[in-house]
Structures
1.
Amino acid sequence: VTAEKAGFDHFMLKEIYDQPKAYRDTMGSRIAPDGKRVTLNELTITPEAIRNISRVHIVACGTAFHAGMVGKYVIEKMARIPVETDVASEYRYRSPIITKDTLVIVVSQSGETADTLAALREAKRCGAHVLAITNVVGSSVAREANDIITTWAGPEIAVASTKAYTSQLIGFYLLGLHLAQTLGTQTPEEIAEVIAAMKELPAQVSEILEQAEALKVVAEEMAKHDNLFFIGRGLDYAVALEGSLKLKEISYIHSEAYAAGELKHGTLALIEDDIPVIALATQHELLEKTVSNIKEVKARGAKVLGIAVEGETELQKSVDSTFIIPKTLDVLTPALSVIPLQLLSYYASLARGNDVDKPRNLAKSVTVE
Ligand code: AGP
């Protein structure tokens, strides 16, 4: 088992460090050599069928659902098709409107999650085209879907999903670009710009991983608290949800993720002296608004760690400490900003003496509904 961990203390840490390779492998040959187009040759859905898509449903559980929240944003922005996201255990029971023109995207690392599989079957029964983003070739989800985008993250052993999530993000970026190319909703220049920035991501993840020691110190402080908050707007909110789930799952510290603008509608009542707040502020258009939400928690005594993009100076004035991620396009930031959150969870779990790879009460693959 030690050998499989490649010298790392835990599978989770190894899998966090596998991410630059997982990004490269998942992009792989799906980017044309000239960097101007994506080539998702594995898809069977025709350009005509893509032009007929009236709506997209993204259905998944847990971390895969959080990747789907990013996917919604990416597809709506790049392809201008309306997207709804559903937790798989809720999907079937709300009588979703599924037609032949609906593209249903199911996201699952294992490809065996019972609720996700049931959602897939219901979507197929209603005549939708089902596309799966999954990490396990030959899994039930992969076998039953009409189309598959395989994430090449390699086996994920730790219960807490890390490299599967980020590879799912890469899958959504590729799909968003593919839809945009087909529909003409992005110019060739815009597409080339996103691809060029995507190619930078693996090296940028490595840069973040070099800061692990600094995050360990922050995590050890966090581990002394019983409650904390993650806040963010837009894509940062989706990443906040994932950061909060990861922390709860392995450190057992209670945390909540809030859309930063929603705090004042109730949650602000929970902010008291010294409570740690992790504020993601990577979206340029939303920065000013996020900063004013940070001021709201600071005024109530919170200790704020900001996650910001290189070159951002405004945020640093309003937080207690900052973790800087390398510069990328706003739409791609989740693929970088989640990395420090993964490391914070890992080190907080370690500081609390928990079984990092096998947290209590949880299974890697949830095959019951
Ligand atoms: C992630 O850290 C969790 N262990 C969990 O939320 C997981 O993502 C969820 O159970 C879905 O699993 P799947 O991707 O294999 O379908």
2.
Amino acid sequence: VDLLDTRGVSVQFTMSGKRVLRAVDDISIELQPGKTLGIIGESGSGKSTLGRAIIGLAPVHTGEIHLDGTRIDTLSSRQRRRIASQIQMIFQDPMEALDPRLSVSASIAEPLIVRGGLSRREIQRRVDELLDLTGLSPRQGSRRPHELSGGQRQRVNIARALTLDPRILICDEAVSALDVSIQADILNLLVDIQEQRGLAYLFISHDIGVVARVCDRIGVMYLGQLVEYGDTADVIGKPLHPYTEALLSAEPQALPSRLRTTERIVLSGELPSPLHPPEGCRFRTRCRYATEICSTPPPAVQPGSPGHSAVCHFARELELVGAKHANSTQ
Ligand code: SF4
Ligand code: MG
């Protein structure tokens, strides 16, 4: 049984004029204990909405979400609260998530106080442990959020998210607002914590370089759909979907040198509105391999090597330019 899995999950919102925005369309993913699944896509691809659906902040329209094989998307809000501690989420803007009036230690302690059952001394001990785990000093514990740097604030958010001992941490663009060197510190911290505690991460990011560095598996989203899914080495080294290929080529400087592509592929055209996705293959308006067949029946999932698949008519025929890969140099 997977720790977490979504089965054909769709999330849709009714907009003005009764138009329906299908932000997440038929997504099935699995997360294993102690592993990191990356979800990559441009803004508007639905990746944040997927994360929010998993923690119960966005309504699941169709499909199911399971934690340890138990369905959780249909729980009442009271039942939901009982499992809520197991899945926590951190966001891009560490300032926004913190109460400016509370000290760092008080912010970290808050979920424990709300849950109840611990003495003040036990709470203090937990807080000290979490400060230490996230690389914050006791002195920083008495500061307020505005007295800290962005990186320190994200450490506080991570500590706070770990207070109730979750098994899954959803990181939504968790390092995107930080300088590159600070990003690396926070990523290393997340990796260390995972090793110590066996946490699983759902790592949502628009940055393929970051995702390639920390994730065991990667799902690529485009206009609400999962267009490619597989082990990081396969998705990065032998992409099956033209969109993944373009993402890889667009940010060579973001990838470790051993993963850089040689060719730069420029996506033609703008990202279509998710309110009016193209018929047939949704990527066809920007795909350099598109043919007539791409505008009629939507492509089905095509398997590549085991555990690797993509939604493209030609997933197996196209010899896409992957990142210079890794098996040889790692
Ligand atoms: Fe491109 Fe056609 Fe494949 Fe879509 S189905 S990604 S348009 S080649
Ligand atoms: Mg987002």
